[in-house]
Design brief:
By secondary structure, the protein is of the alpha+beta class. About 30% of the residues are buried. Helix content is about 20%, strand content about 35%. It is built from three helices and eleven strands; from the N terminus they run αββββαβββββαββ. This is Heme-binding protein 2. Belongs to the HEBP family.
Length: about 190
């Protein structure tokens, strides 16, 4: 699986050797975005309601971090993975924050003990991806998502416009060469 990880704009594995990366195959790189094919995979997720995106990300991250630190039915520690994603729906203040479940737990992930945390299976999908650097704020994610949406419309690429995902790859302590993404699902 991990041999498929090869992003057009850099070597993902070289940048994140200490973390498990979501398996992905780059289908095409038209320039300012990528079309990627993601495999079916399990994620651990939580939904934070009625908060700002920034606060939802903070709360959601900690709920999921407690899960990987052993707040699960098997009380096992689970490796941190990347990316951390956030589902952003147009006009909605509910945000779904998710961690990819590592390969060794994909078949049978430990069940969460926090009732706000759940395991979900995301089906295989083709995604349009725009990457950018720096520290990403909700405003920056929205700006990048808008830019990707404009590009896709201009090129006649059909995509689901009513939601997008943000994807963060770095710890807040990493100061340089940061990697962030926005994802739209291809129709």
């Amino acid at each position: 699986c991990q041999e498929k990880i090869l992003f057009c704009h850099g070597e993902a594995r070289a940048a994140y050797p200490q973390r498990t990366l979501l398996p992905v195959e780059v289908v095409s790189c038209p320039g300012d975005y990528e079309l990627r094919q993601y495999e079916t995979a399990k994620w651990v997720s939580t939904v934070i309601r009625g908060e700002t995106q920034k606060e939802a990300m903070r709360q959601g991250f900690w709920k999921l971090f407690h899960y990987i630190q052993g707040k699960n039915e098997k009380e096992v520690k689970i490796d941190m993975t990347v990316p951390v994603t956030c589902l952003v729906k147009s006009g909605c203040t509910d945000f779904k924050i998710s961690f990819f479940v590592p390969f060794e737990h994909q078949d049978s992930p430990p069940q969460p003990t926090d009732s706000d945390v759940f395991i979900e299976e995301r089906k295989a999908a083709a995604l349009f991806v725009r990457s950018f650097g720096g520290f990403a704020s909700p405003e920056k994610y929205a700006e990048e998502a808008d830019a990707l949406a404009r590009t896709l419309r201009n090129r006649g690429q059909p995509f689901h416009e009513d939601f997008f995902y943000t994807a963060g790859y770095d710890s807040p302590f990493k100061l340089f060469n940061r990697h962030n993404e926005v994802w739209y699902f291809k129709k």
